[in-house]
Amino acid sequence: MSVLVWVEHDGKAVKDATLAAVTAAARLGEVEALVAGQGVDGVAQEAAKIAGVTKVLVADDASLGHALAENVAPLVVELMGSRDAFVAPATTTGKNIAPRVAALLDVMQISEVLSVESADTFTRPIYAGNAIATVQSKDGKKVLTIRGTAFEKAAAEGGSAAIEQVSAKGDQGLSSFEGSEIAQNARPELTSAKIIVSGGRALGSEEQFHQLIDPLADALGAGVGASRAAVDAGYAPNDYQVGQTGKIVAPEVYVAVGISGAIQHLAGMKDSKTIIAINKDEDAPIFQVADLGLVGDLFKVVPELTEKLAV
Amino acid sequence: MKVLVPVKRVLDYNVKPRVKADGTGVDLANVKMSMNPFDEIAVEEAIRLKDKGVTEIVVVSIGELKAQETLRTALAMGADRAILITSEEKVEPLGVAKLLKAVVDEEKPDLVILGKQAIDDDNNQTGQMLAGLLGVGQATFASKVELTADSVTVTREVDGGLETEKLKLPAVVTTDLRLNEPRYASLPNIMKAKSKPLATKTAAEYGVDVSPRLTTLKVTEPGKRQAGVKVADVDELVMKLKAMGVAK
After folding, report:
1. Rounded Cα gap, residues A93 and B151, in angstroms
2. Which residue, among B159, B210, B233, B248, would best test binding to A if mutated, counting the most A CBs under 10 Å from its CB?
3. Which residues are involved in binding FAD (chain A) (predicted)?
4. Taking the domain B2-244, which CATH number applies?
């Protein structure tokens, strides 16, 4: 089976999510990687080094600069004429493009794949991760999005794939990119961080969120996350949100501070290796999944913890 | 200007899903069902666009007859009329997108607003598939929608921040949580909604093949986490963190 993998990148470097998608794709067959964008030579060079990638297809065109689904999908559909599966990481870009490709190929997509059981059988979470479905596809071609935290990352070095240029299909004239606001964050990226410190509504305000959560995260070299309640209350930006509707993370250590543990939040972090909960309510549902729990007032406990870790 | 809003009847988001013992699915007998939360946001957005040139809001649902209740809820919120497409079998996103395309071909809306995903199947596909089948622009994960006579400008929630796209109409938009706060239907509006038009059709009437492409072999409970321990104080937590190698 020949598999085309969508390379997630920011125009400069390959994003980690791609590496997990390559691992999943390699379970299906021979992996080719598609780098689409504008001025993406560097990204293509990097993609060619990923272990397991046999060929890198590069589509470099102004119309692909911001990965608009309307312009990317026709390109992927054409490339899929001679390939059997399209695999994208379940990032916002992957989720935006893959279903459009699937519809144009007249196949059902399988979203957020957790495991590849065979060439046509996969597992995926449903109901906010409260159930795992094993599904078999009858479609001739497969379109999958991969949950990054469910697969090991392929080695970023060691491969030596050939690079081949392919031509873009041009601007379809349906949509245009107007601008972006990317949050400045010097800390590790949430979806790839080894440790995450996450704050909830109990933090009380944006100031207290930063005063308490940020130093603790820095003491641990951790990324910073938030519950939906904290984001909705304006304590943290949208892209900090961990949960069913935010990011799905599975770090080595997840520290939940002042988070009660609603099922929608647990859906985003319950595959973390170790969960640590700090909450003053000893009956909070978060303690049912936490490996280590500390019942206490976070306004006392967190500064003390930060101080003792910094020593 | 006409807006079409597809809505789905799903297990209420507050209910903890139970996997059936025989592994065939999630038990939906005698549990509270509601409108998918993202679809409520879609209905709300359509209503808010009413003072910006939108003259008619048509809501559509696909599924069993009981989905009528979901449509009535949308009508009570402020939608003008409803279409129910009944199907004995569960229809997958691809089938739903094909049926919606048939509805769009008939109704010719300027804008289709869907939820970004349904909280039962968690697929996040239907809007994108519909846009692809229609050959129109798509803006997924919308947190802000600005409508003009011939275009829609949408701020999208993407990994790392926000992104703004402009689409030529007709177009498809899918809603994210922060787009708006859906209104509650008032009692008078619930009563009024009972007399608003609701057309019932079948998938076969649209001549669309909705036979499933995926077979669910089994549904299981996710792995349970081991019960943890509670530490007495910060010192003990620090000690454990050090033992794990997380802290120096």
Report:
1. 22
2. B159
3. 201, 227-228, 241-245, 258-265, 279
4. 3.40.50.620
Write down the pTM of the prediction.
0.94
Q: Is A270 on the interface with B (CB under 8 A)?
A: yes
Residues in chain A: 311
What residues does each domain of chain B span?
A: 2-244
ipTM: 0.95
CATH superfamily ID and name for A2-165: HUPs (3.40.50.620)
Q: Nearest residue on chain A to B139, judged by CA atoms? A: A96
The domain ranges of chain A are: 2-165, 190-310
Per-residue pLDDT of chain A (311 residues; tens, 9 = 90+): 999 999 999 999 999 999 999 999 999 999 999 999 999 999 999 999 999 999 999 999 999 999 999 999 999 999 999 999 999 999 999 999 999 999 999 999 999 999 999 999 999 999 999 999 999 999 999 999 999 989 999 999 999 999 999 999 999 999 999 999 987 777 888 888 999 999 999 999 999 999 999 999 999 999 999 999 999 999 998 889 999 888 999 999 999 999 999 989 999 999 899 999 999 999 999 999 999 999 999 999 999 999 999 87
Q: Give the Cα separation of B174 and B128 in Å (integer).
A: 8
- Equal CATH topology for A2-165 and A190-310: yes
Burial code of A210-226, b = ≥16 C-beta within 10 A, e = fewer? eebbbbbbbbbebbbbb
What is A190-310's CATH superfamily?
TPP-binding domain (3.40.50.1220)
H-state helical runs in chain A: 16-26, 41-48, 69-79, 92-105, 206-220, 228-232, 263-269, 298-310
Contact yes or no for B171 and A228 at CB 8 A: no
Cross-chain Cβ contact B221/A287 below 8 Å: no
